[in-house]
Design a protein that fits this description.
InterPro entries: Trp_synth_b-like, Trp_synth_b_CS, Trp_synth_beta, Trp_synth_beta/beta-like, TrpB-like_PALP, TrpB-like_PALP_sf
CATH architecture of the domain at 69-110 and 234-444: 3-Layer(aba) Sandwich
Oligomer: single chain
Pfam families: PALP
Strand order of the largest sheet: 1-4-5-15-10-11-14
Subunit structure: Tetramer of two alpha and two beta chains.
Number of helices: 19
EC number: 4.2.1.20
GO molecular function, one term: L-serine hydro-lyase (adding indole, L-tryptophan-forming) activity
CATH topology of the domain at 69-110 and 234-444: Rossmann fold
Strand content: 15-25%
Number of strands: 15
Largest sheet: 7 strands, mixed
Radius of gyration: 20 Å
Amino acid sequence: MTESTKYLLSEDRLPKAWYNLAADLPVPLPPPLNPGTLKPLVADDLAPIFPRAVIEQEMSAERWIDIPEPVREVYRLWRPSPLIRARRLERALDTPAHIYFKYEGVSPAGSHKPNTSVPQAFYNQQEGVKKLATETGAGQWGCSLAFAGSLFGLEVQVFMVKVSFNQKPYRRALMETYGATCIPSPSPLTEAGRAILARDPESNGSLGIAISEAVEVAIAHDDTKYALGSVLNHVCLHQTVIGEEALLQMEMAGDEPDVVIACTGGGSNFAGLAFPYIREKIKGRSIRIVGVEPHSCPTLTKGRYAYDFGDTAKLTPLMKMHTLGATFMPPGSHSGGLRYHGMSPMVSHVKELGLMEARSYHQTECFAAALQFARNEGIVPAPESSHAVKAAIDEALLAKAEGKARTILFNLSGHGHFDMQAYTDYLAGKLKDRVFDDSLLDEALADLPVID
């Protein structure tokens, strides 16, 4: 009998509710603070930038939140996504480990990001919003919100980190194909952008700067709201369809993961796969959860757990999270989606509670792992996802060295079809590992807000 490679759920098994980890945390999540009063945030504080339904989800402690049927209807375009056993990679590594990956690159936009862009667009359209402003790093989120906006009749304006805007023209083209406007950030269109350009006309930008520009636009226009692709609770919530499906698919495979792995930038794809498994860990299941980040932007491994702003211009609420400092400018890299100074408050809290591990890698070793994966499994990973691939290979080789079987599950959060310049640079020996400057980190952390 032929061994299965893919484990596929039928559409009628698509999750009907998102899972909210806040309901099961042994210690409650520290609340976000109003930066003016330093008091816990209330719903009205978020009303200028988010629709009411999203605000309610952001603050909810309910364990399950129903997925609206119009959202599930769109999800059916690509969900449930496949769980794949990487048998060819296992043989190449000569490992006793079983390696599985949840493949989110099958979405129309090519990544996990539509899991949240679709509900966010739906809720905004339901409340009469006409336009969404957002930021994007490598472009996966911008493409995903552009896709969702096209389905729900919303105008979308995307501020794309300038280094990625220049590196990834085809992601810009995809956004424009879906009808969105893509602007390099920092830009002269906002006060935040103009201030950065006045200090550094050649600035490559950062997610923190792009967030400032998008939030500024949303606050200034009554018909416009802000949409965020990572970090906040409601985004992590929407992504949990990944892990809920994976639980069912691993059961189909007759296997259980010993270790669950995902890359971490703002925390959304990690949360999507890991949070349902962290629920199981809290219940007593023995399982390791690993978040993997770039060595050039090591938020979880070198950042401080403190209240900080989510953006460079300090327009957002204060959040308790692992942070490199809102003014920290990460070195340029091809993993633009992981170049964020902060980490999701929920993911940060999970790390503080000891429910997960974190590690960092240089980009060249991640690209080496991505090539090995592509040449065995056929899928070219997004540079961000290559960090999870590298960690999964390391775990499989450790199992080989120890002579112990181990089941590994990782999230392949997107394909790299629009990132081929990065692969071209790597293959030509042009891709270099960026040196992390601790003095710049110290300078940024010295500017953290003082909370009594």
